[in-house]
Amino acid sequence: MSLSTSYRYEAGNIEQKSLMKARQAQTQRERINNDELMAARENTVRLEMETNLRAGWDEGLEEASESKRVKNNISLQQGEMRLAKTATLAVRRAALKQQLQKDYDLYKHELNAKGKTFYVQRL
Fold this sequence. Notes:
By secondary structure, the chain is mainly α. It is built from one helix and no strands. Helix content is about 90%, strand content about 0%. The chain starts with a helix and ends in a 9-residue tail after the last helix.
């Protein structure tokens, strides 16, 4: 082979090699870009999943705190009803004592007017 012939094959080989390197570099850049794009998408999905998880926790906490608040309100109302019942009973007792004392004084006054008195046993 002559020099020109071998150069022609070598030159063609060089062009093919440079084309091949350019294609490989372009393919590598495409892979890198695709990897970056996928990483960004995965990060977005991960962040959305974390946000949804936190929102679910918040909803669960709201439900739990709502039921706890309702239970506390019920127990508070029951306590208030118990106190109201006790207060009503005390008021009724005081009114009854007052009425009994008034009746006693009235009977005593009537008996005194007749010259009589209540029998009191002495020990």
